[in-house]
Amino acid sequence: MRRIHKIAAGVFLIGVLFTGIGTGVALAEFSNLSYGGRIEADTANYKSKELVYTLAEDERYNRIYVDSYWRNDSSIEFVEKSEAFPDNTIALEIYYDAGAIEPELYVDNEIEEGEIYISVHYNQNSSYDAFSEVLNVKDKILEGLKDKKIYSYDGSKIKSIKVKASENLRGKIVY
What we know:
Elements: H1 3-31, E1 34-40, E2 46-54, E3 63-68, E4 76-79, E5 89-97, E6 101-108, E7 115-124, H2 130-146, E8 149-154, E9 158-165, H3 167-170, E10 173-174
Parallel strand pairs: 1-8, 3-7, 3-10, 4-9
Antiparallel strand pairs: 2-5, 5-9, 6-7
């Protein structure tokens, strides 16, 4: 073997050695991290809004689907309402980030005979800055790493939907 080959092999072996040391140090640091739980991704401007849909008097449905394409199963709940609540009305109380989105009701009553689909959709506000939210989360990640913790970041724009309807409609609502 020529001298250049010996030097190249030595450099390669030193590189492998340093790579192994770096990997060991990284794994040791990672194993010292603990899970810190779930926190908000940003400081949002949350508020409630009630969207109401009134069924026509001649409309009779066997099933009423309430859903949202951002769906989080634990965030849709049925709220008891008094008998004074109109029999043909469904209200959705939405708790959302007003700085980022504006929710709206979408209704499709042509899916199947006797069924109606009510969904919450939303439009992003023009003033919403997703890049600043990414930078805020980056800063929170670095803060967490300094404290030797890893967090789950919740960036959902809709936190919950409460379905309000009369007892008569309650048995027909699927969510």
